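Ex. 9. Protein: Metallo-beta-lactamase domain-containing protein 1.
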Amino acid sequence: MAKTKILVKGYAKEIDGEEHASSTATLIQENGLNIIVDPGMDRKALLEGMSKEGLATGDINFVVLTHTHLDHCLLAGIFENAKVLDNSDIFSFDGRIGEHDGRIPGTDIEIVGTPGHDQFHCSVLANTEDLGKVVIAGDIFWWSDDEEQKTDRESLINHEDPYVKDEEALKESRNKILDIADYIIPGHGEMFKVKK
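Predicted structure tokens for Metallo-beta-lactamase domain-containing protein 1:
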């Protein structure tokens, strides 16, 4: 069984006329492996979150990117011993590119295609003992800091995404994740329990 821990709560806000954003950065631990989903772009917050868990950048085995918007992936290169996964491939720092089979190698953690916000978007499904099925959903679900985070199904399905690439695909992905998950960790905002 996996353990999940939010290292950085994602945010999207304006301060003094400037946009500030960084995705939720989530640690998953399973079978002795340390995995970070969406390291974001707030280096100080990420390193502080890792330090609280007793981890250094060299301790991370895999980094999973739900998509390649820079507020989610800018820091992927700081993990010197990690391999980086996206929706279909595994990238190594020696230039090698391989494919994965929809799982993080050496684990039961699934990588699920969830297009819409971005055509190559994916989410990560971890089975945990304490929370059940936790989905790290990237920007399938996200809120700016000044928005109310409504978590009833209708609000979640229809929540406006100003960066959406394919609205119909996004709604399908949202429905798929809501059917699977017990808890969802959004790209920006608070983790929430799925109302069944």
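Check your answer against this statement. The radius of gyration is 16 Å.
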